[in-house]
Amino acid sequence: MIDLLRSDFIFTLGRNMDFNYRTNQLIAIMSLVVAAIGWILIGKISSGLYVGSGVFLTWSLSRELDPKHDYSAFLAAAFSGLNLFYYETIQLLVIFWIILLMRIVNGITGESQTFFDLFSVLGLSIYLSFNNENSIYLLVYVLAMALILINRQKSKKVLLASGISLGLFIIETFFMGYLTFNRADYLSLVNVFSLVVLGLSFVLFWFLSKEKVEDDKGNPVKRYELLASQFLFSAIILLLILFSQLAINNLIIYLSVIVGVAIYFIGYKLIKRD
């Protein structure tokens, strides 16, 4: 009983990065090189580090979306290098939060979600909602919990986390005014391109999720869990566009992930067919 309780307070959403693998070595070098170039082009060490970290997190996001193909993540990371030429700010914590949410849903670590997993990410969601005065982060968390409940047995801890996040979302939205529609120009070239890419991503994920994928323990990942995490990613980006002041550099990263994965997957299928 004590061991069971202890296991529920272990964080299982981390993934080991073995530098014996060439792909891990490559992304580390690539991130450092981009950080150095960013320092030179932008003129600030901190900005260079942010852009370099953005490249690494782009790669990480792509690995969650497409764990089957190692090199699609590098194509996405290369696209995110566009941030070198127009830099304002990168919300690294938001990207990290998205990665954790996806891991909760897809179970790629091969571990069952623990109490600490669910409530540490809930705590991060609450922090982001208060720090940005935006309850959309809590709504996204509720959506992630709903996707888990649809596929798995109704866990008390998942239900509890869902109830707390839903309650806080209602309070922040209706009593604190933390949810407002972003009245941007949705006919601008950037927004039209973003919305088209997000719309097409749902089609991409339907086919991408058919690929056989193994978790970190070597067990097969259920297609629903992979597809649910992929859909969650695009839903998050859409909600952030509509209900938050999404940084342009973050948008570049998110679109780079989808476009990079899409181009590699289509090319891979065409080559395999030939």
UniProtKB/TrEMBL annotation:
Region forming the signal peptide: none
Transmembrane helix listed as a keyword: yes
Keywords: Membrane, Transmembrane, Transmembrane helix
Listed transmembrane segments: 26-51, 71-102, 114-130, 136-151, 158-180, 186-207, 227-246, 252-271
Protein name: Uncharacterized protein
Source organism of the structure: Carnobacterium iners
